[in-house]
Design goal:
2 copies of one chain form a homodimer.
Chain A (H helix, E strand, L loop, with lengths): L12 H9 L8 H4 L3 H28 L6 H27 L4 H18 L5 H23 L4 H12 L6 H12 L2 H27 L1 H8 L9 H21 L5
Helix pairs in contact in A: 1-7, 3-4, 3-5, 3-6, 3-10, 5-9, 6-7, 6-8, 6-9, 6-11, 9-10
Chain lengths: 254, 254
């Protein structure tokens, strides 16, 4: 696969910088890369998964906000939900702009993502907080890892959407305070964090197994510059390490 | 009550224009008006009611989005919810900026607004659409009516927040199509619209009866320039007429 060291003129700020920082060269812009129908199909899958991920995150955060003990807490989670919806809109509009049907692009990911949320419905407010903080971050890490291998336009979009997360930071102080009050809470939430990671991996595997275009993008294929298996291993190591650090920030063993 | 015909220098665009258009002169800016503690208390009540109204609207629209038959419909209602959250944030930040405790300001309105939503939980997607369209508009009409009597800064904030509604327009085509398919739906939804209006009035009366500061602002008192009773009657007529027109736009008798 041909690579291009020079950032093209239409690449904007952050995306290019981050890609360069992680040592990946530009593979060109969307117009160039999407001429390959396999590449196009893979990116539409990725954007569809991301878009429905944001829409379902909106729905679940809004639902979990009901568990909040007070108005400020409720508003904090509602604010995260509203931010996820703005991301959904960006991704939806991008799919429409490249002549894809957003609903069709999202459809394959509805069931796996709904299943993830069904399996990880928080039993109380603290579980909801941990899920908001940890779940959001795992997804964000994953998409950032993938983004640096994409064409400049898609990469900028994905990194831009992901840069705007981090609304969940308010969760840290709340969870730490709850554990301080009752250390047994820490054991329960540590288990919960492991379950979140496990369910996320399990649904991700299911998606990769079912979607050839997407798995080509991740694992590599003839058509697109994917990860080789060593790189996939390293990527999952990085994501797991970041997860461990976040659990520690919450005062939880991972 | 003293009035000031000249718009003060810090009044921005729209607010002043609308107030002038409806024949109300400026009563001064927030700094001037809020020196009167009764005025200040009334406006904090109003902003608190409005803020919790937006937060609970977010919550209910997000909830009702679950009834959507498809992803695009779900996203349309979720988009309304996200917009309501942005309004909540503006109102919350305004309360904090004038040294009020947003949570305390909202508290008196939690129970009446929750009761409204409890009494008007949609049984299906079409009821949810009618509620989104009609409920949003009744609230918006009411606050616009009140806004023109407020100090310039509060008026600009309230009119600005309300100007950004109208996300519910997508409901019109959907409801009309459903009635065309099955005319009996029209009868049921017409009853539903009347019930929404009835519950809204009933909870509004309860709030006015319980909150002296707010009722002074509406009905008039020694301290603030309220409506006299003739004006209150006219105001409710205007709101009811607008409701009738909106129901007609949906193809429903009101």
């Amino acid at each position: 696969m041909e690579t291009h060291g020079d950032a093209p003129a239409n690449a904007v700020g952050q995306g290019t910088g981050k890609a360069a920082a992680t040592g990946h060269d530009s593979i060109g812009d969307w117009a160039r890369c999407s001429a390959d129908p396999h590449y196009r199909a893979a990116v539409l899958d990725l954007l569809g998964a991301l878009a429905y991920g944001e829409l379902s995150a909106f729905e679940r955060l809004a639902e979990d906000a009901k568990l909040a003990p007070g108005l400020e807490d409720k508003a904090a989670l509602a604010g995260m939900a509203a931010a996820e919806f703005q991301h959904y809109r960006l991704l939806h509009d991008r799919l429409a702009a490249v002549d894809a049907d957003p609903t069709e692009s999202m459809r394959p990911f509805v069931e796996p993502l709904d299943a993830f949320h069904r399996m990880t419905a928080p039993a109380d407010w603290l579980e909801g907080l941990v899920k908001a903080f940890v779940g959001d971050a795992i997804a964000s890490d994953f998409y950032r890892e993938v983004a640096v291998r994409l064409d400049d336009d898609t990469r900028d979009l994905v990194l831009g959407v992901m840069a705007d997360t981090g609304h969940a930071q308010f969760a840290v102080a709340k969870v730490r305070a709850a554990i301080e009050q009752d250390p047994r809470v820490g054991g329960r939430l540590a288990l919960w964090g492991r379950r979140l990671m496990g369910e996320a991996l399990s649904q991700a595997q299911r998606v990769v197994a079912e979607r050839d275009a997407l798995s080509n993008l991740l694992i590599g294929g003839a058509e697109v510059r994917g990860f080789d298996l060593v790189e996939v291993g390293k990527m999952f190591n990085r994501i797991t390490e970041a997860h461990t650090k976040r659990m520690a920030a919450l005062g939880l063993a991972s």
